[in-house]
Design brief:
Blueprint (H helix, E strand, L loop, with lengths): L1 E5 L2 E13 L2 E12 L7 E2 L2 E2 L7 H23 L5 H19 L1 H5 L6 H15 L8 H8 L4 H24 L1
Antiparallel strand pairs: 1-2, 2-3, 4-5
Helix pairs in contact: 1-2, 1-4, 2-4
Amino acid sequence: YEILETCGQKLKFCDQILCLNHYRIYFKTHRYLQPVPLDPFPTFLGVKFDPKLSLKNLLENINAKAMSEINLIRRIKGLKLRNTIELSKIVFKGFIRSQFDYSFIPISCSTQKISSDLQKLQNKILRHIKYFLIKTRITKIHQHLKLDMLASRSDIFYTDFSINELSISNLTAT
């Protein structure tokens, strides 16, 4: 059995012998997903996250930093330029989304509950970039603006981080 872990899923490859003809063995590979058992105290850069640890300070800090950029997006929107949406997306990607990207470990940590609050903040900012009707789905907004949801983006960063960590540990072990 070969087991790989990717972002909360465990990929398990199971080989079965189908038939034995003239010393040839044929294998059929089945691939199925299993949830990875969550560590109650996940570790990031040598620091253990306690389930009682609250990262609300991180959320408040990101909210405070994002307010000036939200005001900048409002001012850009008020200029009535042709490329207002593109300029606002550049401000969002450069100043706000980068703060979300740096906090991908606490977002992907199962003991923290700040991911929904950060997603609400991102949705609020995207509604400032372009006006959408109140009942517009969040996925439609992200598709229209060609931006990723916070959870999918943090999963990508977490996967890259874990692959890099594995390669570094393999280099140091040899």
